[in-house]
Amino acid sequence: FVKMVIAIGFEGSANKLGIGIIENGKVLSNCRRTYITPPGEGFLPRETAQHHRANILTVLREALDEAGVTPQQIDVVCYTKGPGMAPPLVSVAVRRPHIGATSPQQHLSLSIKSDIEMGRLITNCDNPTVLYVSGGNTQVIAYSRGRYRIFGETIDLAIGNCLDRFARVLKLSNDPSPGYNIEQMAKRGKKLIVLPYCVKGMDVSFSGILSTIEKILPQLLDTGTNTKEDLCFSLQETLFAMLVETTGECGAIL
């Protein structure tokens, strides 16, 4: 007889609060709340932590109810240990037997447990080449010579950070997220504006494209020949092409 392990995970390293429950690899619930700020503004650590503390019990009840389990049935408690903003991280820290997962910059092996291995389990993929992107990470990771290795990464900004800052420059809504709103506007873009394209081997750089947009934005829009939708389309296509190139290079050498 093999007992099915039920695990609950808490995520709160940035403006999203999430609680998920899995049983033997099957996702039973995945409930979330997002701290949303006004257009053109980012989220600050203290206010973000206040949001998480105000909502964590509600989200926990939703996760347990959706999964159909009780707290007594939980075998393993996991939470995001870092990196991230300290006050929000503290709001999801667990003071009982637990597993604390860190992001790739600190320990890739723990990231594998919390991200890559979870993806492998859900997709049934045996040996993936992973494009790991988020607000704080942009890395191309693959299994080689007995371990997961980073083959390429950003040398400055993470792509999520780049998108967030671009959305603030255009004063786009943060509801439900800057990246989603950029994507929706990009669908209406009709003109591809040439932006800096910086791939160095299998590494990428996003700071140049962002600083260029911040510098030329007024003149691009004042001419009347370019729209915010065109800018969203151009940024999205340029960033996507850079990531496809680096991921493809990694796949080609394995």
UniProtKB/TrEMBL annotation:
Assigned keywords, A-Z: Acyltransferase, Cytoplasm, Metal-binding, Transferase, tRNA processing
Q: Which Pfam families match?
A: TsaD
Upper taxonomic lineage: Eukaryota, Metazoa, Ecdysozoa, Arthropoda, Hexapoda
Molecular function via GO: metal ion binding; tRNA N(6)-L-threonylcarbamoyladenine synthase activity
Q: Which organism is it from?
A: Timema douglasi
Q: Enumerate the catalysed reactions.
A: L-threonylcarbamoyladenylate + adenosine(37) in tRNA = N(6)-L-threonylcarbamoyladenosine(37) in tRNA + AMP + H(+)
Keyword Signal in record:
no
Write down what this protein is called. Answer: N(6)-L-threonylcarbamoyladenine synthase
Give the enzyme class. transferase
Family matches, as InterPro entries = ATPase_NBD, Gcp-like_dom, KAE1/TsaD
**CDD domains per record:** ASKHA_NBD_OSGEP_like_euk
Location in the cell reads: Cytoplasm; Nucleus
**Biological process (GO), any one:** tRNA threonylcarbamoyladenosine metabolic process
Signal peptide, first to last residue: none
Q: Where is the Gcp-like domain?
A: 33-248
Q: What is its EC number?
A: 2.3.1.234
Question: Listed GO cellular component terms?
Answer: cytoplasm; EKC/KEOPS complex; nucleus
